[in-house]
Amino acid sequence: MNNPPKLTPMLQQYLEIKSQHQDAILFYRLGDFYEMFFEDAVTASKVLGITLTSRSGKDDKNKVPLCGIPYHAAASYLAKLVKAGFRVAICEQVEDPKEAKGVVKREVVRIITPGLITEDHLLDDKTNRYLAAFCHHKTKYGLSLIDISTGEFLLAEHDSLEKIYDDLHRMTPSELLVADSSSAEDEKFFKELTTTLSELCITRRDENIFRLENARQTMLDHFQVANLAGFGCDEMTAAIGAAGGLIQYLHETQKADLSHIERIVPLDTAGILMIDDSSRRNLELTQTIIGAKREGSLLATLDFTRTPMGARLLKRNILLPLRDVNEINIRLDSVAQLYHAPAANESLREILDQIYDLERLNSRVVLGSANARDLHALALSLARLPALKEQAIAAGIMTEHCKNLDELTEIKELLEQSIRDDAPITLREGGLIKDGYHQELDELKTILRDGKSLILDLENREREKTGIAKLKIGFNKVFGYYLEVSHAQTANVPDYFIRKQTLVNAERFITPELKEFENKVSGAQEKRLDLEYQLFTEIRRQVAAQSPRIIQAANFVAWLDFFRGLAEAARKFHYVHPVINNSEEIAIKEGRHPVIEQALPPGKFVPNDIHLDQTSDEVLIITGPNMAGKSTVLRQTALIVLMAQMGSFVPASSAEIGVVDRIFTRVGAMDDLRKAQSTFMVEMNETANILNNATSKSLVILDEIGRGTSTFDGLSIAWAVTEELTNKDGKGVKTIFATHYHEITELALTCERIKNYNIGVREWNDTIIFLHKLLPGATNRSYGIQVAALAGVPPHVVKRAKEILHNIEKGEFTKTGMPRIAGPIKRDQPSQLTLFSGSESPALKRLAEIHPDRLSPLEALNMLYELKALHEME
Ligand code: ADP
Questions:
Q1: Element (DSSP H or E) covering residue 70
Q2: pLDDT of 60 above 70
Q3: How crowded is the C-beta side of 708, counted as CA atoms within 13 Å?
Q4: Residues with CB under 6 A from ligand 1
Q5: Hey, is 120 helix, strand or coil?
Q6: What are phi and psi of 766, to 5 degrees?
């Protein structure tokens, strides 16, 4: 019979703690190591590539699998596990092993999941890392997001999952909490999210934490308020469910103070320029479509920020541009001030370079994970605030904010006086606190440093007092420090000498003073380390209490950095101050694509004018061969509008922008492989979204719509969509439409608000030169064969294509590609195979399929229409 393994008390403790954290890998602190046992050890050793060993139980037959990592190197292992989708519970020793009776007490102090990382080196400092929660309550869907490394806490409530989808794709959280029992519809939604947001980890929690009463109470307790009206979200039941669930989760996973999460802000989409997920990707706002790289995105081009806070704010503002003319102009004015003051801009840059990530430093202070280097970095950063303020005032920006800026002088002074510049990252090994900050600590340090000379002092003093010249002080392990006197001198020994040992030649004594000294020295090291740690945590606590003030300062720095960065970009790239108003007009002179122009040699980008309004130039139809620059002109228009509405100067010689409420794009034919949908389906989804949601204040960019289906279907769809956009809600929507269906240019004849443009191409010998210039009027040449030749299609294939084109143009084919006359197609070399064998016309073919007896009169009439249409197209 197998006896259950006999476990050591430590392993019993391990199993007890592990039983409360079944869903996590438990990092069990054992001295200088985090150990993992049993299945955790097996899993972790595989994921981390570390050796799996075993530890003998009391009974050697019951070996326990084990692997461990040094605690000081834990962060990188932790990151690997979290990245691989595991939760990690950190279990620390919570009492001094020396004072422990039996097994040292241990507790899980923190659980780390993808959304709960605060370690600086594991975070991308230019991106917020959000933890999100979702809650479905009756007909409402709630969403809440938190970045615990900065304390930012947001919530939103919508009546459709689509909007939640949009928010999630805009904010790209790392982890989403959902109720463990969700409806089938919600489950389907989660599944879709995991395919479209590949980095997202979905965590299921007890549905109770999302229940309105519980969630509301959690929020009231956290914020210490009587109701949530002050946060503007009292009525948002589903959003409160999500936010309360989120806070509850934080309390469960972080044994830390969460007071830096001091307010919750509605994720306001009412005042922003909405850009849906696909448009955001199509326009490559924060990453490229291919390769998902930052490099090559609008964000990377515009990013001249110098601090992580500024970089995160820039990203946020690119994703959430504004709609309100006044607000936009306030931003633009700040950028303009710095644009016109290059010297101030330069000084600000130097100051900002010396400011660390105040937001994340503050969060670590509040969460109790900041070390002395963090506090030193905080001190250095705060020390730069007065200079920053002075320069901002000199440049005339953020004047109101400057007036109210709290320079946190006393915190800076406290830190400057207390924290050593060269402090180590560890907190228990001393070296944290400066000399002169605390008297007792200074004394202890003196004792440690001067121990030897103090002994010599004492020796000399005793020699003088007793007149025993050869008296000396020694030390042994049995009774510590002693005074040694040779037998010849023992007669001179004074009364206060206490005899301890008699040797052959000498006697050993102690004195009360010597013992007192000994006590001081021997306990000094330990006392010093304890005291330094205590003083440090007390300082950290004092700083944490000022967290709201630090957050405010961080905010000031972020905005200043944002404006300064945009001013630098504007100067460097020759952008102009756009004019923003509430008109219906967009007038861009010599506009450029901000990213593509940087990829080309200077001066090589060909600027183009764009004029859109709702009376004469509402829908611009742009034709031109592939590679002419249609997409570029489309995208640059959207990007210029977006940049202007976020408060940036724009790449143009002048720009007047009547603010738009949404930008829609249907660009390129990128298969959305992750969604496993066909190109055509994706295209039609995006088109449906545009037709359903565009308003007369929107800007629509359409590139090659209808390409994923047969020519006639595609053309008909493109035609109908254009008509709809021209007439939508009686007013129409500003639209730029690039197409290769030349037929559509005829739409301009039907409505004076539709205008044709083409992108100039010059024919030269047998090839073409792209002029990239937008010209009024339509073109009916697609130059497809020339483009194919330029693209490297072999010459004999190009030659054959020309033959076929020639035949088609001579009318030997119908437009659907069917030969008009039966028989082989003519070609230069008659020996080759025919391209098409004979077949009858589509109208005749359709006619042959008809069974007149089976048709109702109405169907017969419709059939007649169909036949006539087919015939006309032949
Ligand atoms: P289309 O959409 O007509 O196929 P694109 O807009 O994709 O063409 O442009 C193809 C390439 O032509 C771009 O990658 C760029 O290198 C170049 N290009 C486009 N527009 C311009 C321009 N205005 N000035 C200079 N080069 C341009």
A1: strand 64-70
A2: no
A3: 18
A4: 596, 600, 604-606, 624, 626-632, 772
A5: helix
A6: -100, 10
Please state the separation of Cα 221 from the chain's center in Å: 29
The residue nearest atom 6 of ligand 1, judged by CA position, is 629
772 Cα: distance to centroid of ligand 1 (angstroms): 7
Best probe residue, ligand 1, of 283, 588, 596, 702 (max atoms within 8 Å of C-beta) = 596
CA–CA gap between residue 616 and residue 57 (Å, rounded): 86
Q: How far is the CA of 605 from the centre of ligand 1 (A)?
A: 9
Give the mean pLDDT of the chain. 86
Instruction: Give all strands (DSSP E) within 264-407, no chain letters.
Output: 265-266, 274-275
Contact 318, 284 (CB under 8 A): no
Residue 210 DSSP label: G
Atom of ligand 1 nearest to the CA of 635: 6
What phi and psi, each to the nearest 5 degrees, are found at residue 481?
-75, 145
Q: Return the pLDDT at 831.
A: 36
Q: Where are the beta strands (DSSP E) in 698-857?
A: 699-703, 734-738, 754-764, 767-776
Query: What local confidence, expressed as pLDDT, does residue 678 receive?
Result: 63
User: Which of 622, 627, 790 is the pocket-test mutation for ligand 1 (most atoms within 8 Å of CB)?
Assistant: 627
Expressed in angstroms and rounded, the spacing between residue 770 Cα and the centre of ligand 1 is: 9
Helices (H), 467-579: 512-544, 547-573
How far apart are alpha carbons 277 and 847 in whole angstroms? 46
Which ligand 1 atom is nearest residue 608's CA?
23
Atom from ligand 1 closest to the CA of residue 629 = 6
- Let me know: does 137 contact 242? Beta carbons within 8 Å: no
Average pLDDT value for residue range 810-814: 61
Tokens in use for 691?
């037709």
CB 229, CB 516: distance < 8 Å: no
Q: Counting atoms of ligand 1 from 1, which one is nearest the CA of 704?
A: 2
Cα distance between residue 671 and residue 676, in whole Å: 8
pLDDT at 830: 37
542 within 8 A of 419, measured Cβ to Cβ: no
**For residue 672, pLDDT beyond 60:** no
Amino acid type, 803: E
Atom of ligand 1 at shortest distance to CA of 738? 2
DSSP 438-476: -HHHHHHHHHHHHHHHHHHHHHHHHHHHH--TT-EEEEE
Tell me: the pLDDT tens digits for 551-598? 999 999 999 999 999 999 999 999 999 999 999 999 999 999 999 999
Contacts of 222 by beta carbon, 8 Å cutoff, 6+ apart: 247, 258, 261
| Residue 671 reports pLDDT greater than 80 | no
pLDDT tens profile 423-449: 998 888 889 999 999 999 998 888 888
